[in-house]
Design a protein that fits this description.
- It is a single chain.
- The strands form nine sheets. The protein has a nine-stranded mixed sheet.
- Helix content is about 10%, strand content about 35%.
- It folds into three domains: about 210 residues, UDP N-Acetylglucosamine Acyltransferase, domain 1 (3 Solenoid); about 170 residues, UDP N-Acetylglucosamine Acyltransferase, domain 1 (3 Solenoid), CATH 2.160.10; about 50 residues, no CATH class.
- It is mainly beta.
Length: about 525
């Protein structure tokens, strides 16, 4: 062996910009110029340890992004996140041989997959997710793709949809189980229909071709609400994780935090047992649309419902969050679970299960857009007596709010007296009655012997309670949204059911699309 200079043992990671510059110059490829441009110049930091689950390390909850500890990140040094993002349970971010760049105030929901370079091409490629983007459960994004833009309006990708080397402009929406194919651009203001297969940009922008429609104001409002809700969840889970003084903390956030004793900490180092397994939701102190607290409940050995102990909760082999009630013991539920199932009652709630017969792998159950709604009714009755004549008037007003009402219920009476402008003595009373009501929106009730096969997505919503009778089976990759499914019914693989009531004993064919109790077509791919 020849004798030469000893190799410096220190390793130097190239700066992100230098890595991207090399990829830009390395070769020609088929990635659209607009995608290459945004991948090369979008800022952000990498979600690699110690910048997980709170991103970046020791960030304050007001600006932090939160990455659920179950998320799979491959080649994390090639991925970047912005602020206030929520990356939900069992998401996959695969930046192998590419780049993944996620802006701010965006969310990647349960079991969604972002695959930067699925075809292993050379040169700069990857996925850009802009600001204010919602990617719902089970959706798959394959590079090279761009969704939304920096500072763009709310953009949404539906559950179990596929974006394959395409561009979804800000303000566009892709429906559940739809596919947008290579080279397609879906412009701002268009929604791809549920289950549609869009293979040309003409199909993505011309409603007369039957694949898209114009986005409505209510759809934009829904997407905007989901963005806001998930920003709140990012903050709430950060607070939940950082909420224990027993972990110690830092006196200031930044690249080099200053460790101090727990008693004087402003940001605690965090406790994983609060955000793994079967755990609490953040609660109303941290997220205004949640109740004060919500903890998964199981049948205990003695019979009554009870939450798990801390060790059992931490090691529970699924992500179960918030006000979820199982009328089974923990062991019975565990025996029925597949790998990586997510049951998340941290938006709409409560969820109640009679019994689970079997869940496949990667099943998602949650209720986006739901939560606690407060109603305050104020009634004011005024009575005035002057010169022997009494007049009475009553007015009433009703106000709704996200979260529980902030005023107290009760009745107050104020009495006045004096002489009016005509010199007549009068007396008057004003009685104000405030009545409050708190309603949980987006509940899901599941009967006995429930089955959902791999990749199935069950979504509640604020519009109605979702009900599933006894012996219901949801097929692989199917999506059921805010619907009631009668006992003994089977929903076929990759079917889509929304805002519908399916009678008992029904068999819905694979790929069927039923919206508002009407069969509107089939999934086209």
């Amino acid at each position: 062996m020849g004798i030469g200079k000893r190799r410096d043992p220190r390793s130097f990671r190239p700066r992100e910009e230098r890595l991207e510059d090399r990829l830009v110059m390395s070769s020609q490829n088929s990635v659209p110029a607009e995608i290459r441009a945004i991948l090369a110049h979008s800022p952000g930091g990498s979600p690699i340890r110690p910048n997980t689950p709170v991103f970046p390390l020791e960030a304050p909850s007001a600006t932090a992004s939160f990455i659920d500890p179950t998320v799979t990140i491959r080649s994390g040094g090639r991925a970047t996140l912005g602020q206030k993002d929520f990356i939900a349970p069992f998401v996959t971010l695969d930046a192998t041989r590419g780049l993944i760049k996620i802006g701010s105030s965006s969310t990647i929901q349960d079991h969604a997959k972002l695959i930067a370079n699925p075809n292993h091409q050379s040169g700069l490629t990857g996925i850009f997710v802009g600001d204010n983007v919602v990617i719902l459960d089970g959706a798959v994004i394959r590079g090279a793709s761009a969704i939304g833009t920096v500072g763009g309006s709310a953009t949404m990708i539906g559950a179990n949809a596929l974006i394959d080397n395409a561009i979804i402009e800000p303000g566009a929406i892709v429906g559940a189980l739809a596919r947008v194919g290579p080279g397609v651009v879906v412009p701002t203001g268009y929604r791809v229909l549920f289950g549609a297969n869009v293979t040309t940009s003409a199909q993505g922008s011309d409603p007369s071709l039957g694949k898209v429609v114009r986005v409505t104001s209510s759809e934009t409002a829904t997407a905007t609400r989901l963005v806001a809700d998930n920003v709140a969840l990012a903050s709430g889970y950060t607070t939940l994780y950082q909420g224990s003084s027993a972990t110690g903390g830092v006196s200031s956030a930044g690249p080099v935090p200053v460790p101090i004793s727990a008693g004087g900490s402003t940001i605690f180092f965090g406790a994983l047992n609060t955000v793994l397994g079967a755990s609490n939701e953040p609660g109303s102190r941290n997220v205004n649309f949640e109740p004060a607290s919500g903890t998964p409940q199981f049948l205990s050995a003695a019979g009554p419902l009870a939450s798990l102990g801390s060790n059992a909760s931490f090691h529970f082999p699924a992500r179960v969050i918030g006000a979820v009630t199982f009328n089974q013991t923990p062991g019975q539920v565990i025996a029925a679970l597949g790998r990586g199932d997510s049951i998340r009652a941290d938006e709409g709630q409560p969820f109640t299960f009679g019994s689970i017969a079997r869940l496949g792998n990667g099943v998602s159950i949650h209720s986006p857009g739901g939560g606690v709604q407060g109603t305050t009714t104020t009634t004011v009755t005024t009575s005035t007596t002057a010169g022997g004549t009494t007049t009475t008037s009553t007015t009433a007003s009703v106000a709704t709010s996200t979260g529980a009402p902030t005023v107290s219920a009760g009745t107050t009476t104020v009495t006045t007296s004096g002489t009016n402008a005509q010199g007549v003595t009068f007396t008057g009373t004003t009685t104000t009655t405030i009545a409050t009501r708190t309603t949980n929106l987006g509940a899901i009730n599941v009967g006995r012997s429930f089955r959902a096969l791999g990749g199935a997505v069950v979504l509640g919503g604020p519009g109605a309670t979702s009900n599933f009778g006894d012996g219901v089976t949801i097929g692989a990759g199917a999506v059921v949204f805010t619907s009631s499914i009668g006992s003994g019914s089977t929903i076929g693989n990759r079917a889509y059911i929304a805002n519908s009531t399916i009678p008992a004993g029904s068999i819905v064919p694979a790929g069927a699309i039923i919206i508002n109790n009407t069969i509107v077509g089939t999934v086209q791919w």
